[in-house]
Amino acid sequence: MESKRTVLISGGAGYIGSHTAVELINAGYYVVIIDNLTNSERDSVAGVEKITGKKVAFEVVDTCDRAQLKTVFETYPFDTVIHFAAYKAVGESMAEPLKYYQNNLVSFMNIVAMMKEYGRPNILFSSSATVYGEAEHLPVTEQTPRQPATSPYGNTKQIAEDILRDSCRAYDNVRGIALRYFNPIGAHPSALIGELPRGVPNNLVPFITQTAAGIRERLSVFGNDYDTPDGTCLRDYIDVVDLAKAHVATVNRMTSDKMEDRYEIFNIGTGRPISVLELLTTFENVNNIKLPYTIVDRRPGDVPAVWAETSRANEVLEWKAERTLNETLKSAWEWEKHVRNII
Q1: In this protein, which residues make up the domain named NAD(P)-binding (predicted)?
Q2: Considering the entire predicted model, what is its pTM?
Q3: Which domains does the chain have, with CATH numbers?
Q4: What is the CA radius of gyration of the chain?
Q5: What distance in Å separates the CA atoms of residue 245 and residue 190, rounded to the nearest whole number?
Q6: Which backbone phi and psi does 166 adopt, to 5 degrees?
Q7: Which of 22, 159, 223, 287, CA to CA, is 20 to 30 A from 108?
Q8: Could you give the C-alpha distances from 163 to 4, 19, 85, 97, 211, in angstroms and in order?
Q9: pLDDT score of 90
Q10: Mind telling me the catalytic residues?
């Protein structure tokens, strides 16, 4: 392994992490995955290996445990870390804020501290559109002021961004990029990896696919009285493979010394707002399935609408979202069928 071509992925057995591992390997990088498997499966690492035909270094590690993390830094040569490891359910964070602050912030501070201590320069932080809160103007750009977070989960992303920004300013040997991505959906076209939440899904598309598979009785649409064209929330849904490729473009930027500042931010989305009902209808049409759903009360922490202005990522990272919504929703269903052994 060459350190400049080796990337540590924390939370790499998770949904976005596993897809990013595939795209990095396909781009010629070596990948080391660490994950504590609290919200992910070993099978996804096997899926990465099957897709790429490459053996992947994998360690069961809790990034909140400094001793475990220290062993990883002393074992593997890497110049770059992509930090995914975090709890990510908005609703759960409203009910259990301390759980989210403890896990999401301690794990990230440990990563930054180790990068500084061991002289590993590049940190790519998995941020989120939630940092924009309820934005006054849409679409949001990287210059859009962050509003107060509407959930503890969103607040952990804002605080972690601040930790990274301040660390990059203070420490000469640390530089970072925060990718603020919008709503990742879909699965790898091979159907070998995808989103597999434990228990009741918090994200819309897994709930859709589980309802289509008969695991959930019906889908709940949280509110149809928002100030949007059809009354349901508007979101920027990005295919997870496109999102993974954005991480490759970002790592390329960091490792080829193209960064203009020690800390940079990019929005990663499609730039196209899609309503919840539009997403449901598209899924039904693409996969020839009728979904039972009920309109219920609004969900705490949800904002009415948010979508990205993506020109900075398109131009500076030389990246753009390419997969269509139809392709993405078809891949999501193929993955669900694979997991459930549905013919």
Answers
A1: 8-330
A2: 0.97
A3: 3-184+240-268 (3.40.50.720), 204-235+271-316+323-337 (3.90.25.10)
A4: 19
A5: 16
A6: -65, -35
A7: 22
A8: 24, 26, 16, 19, 39
A9: 85
A10: 153
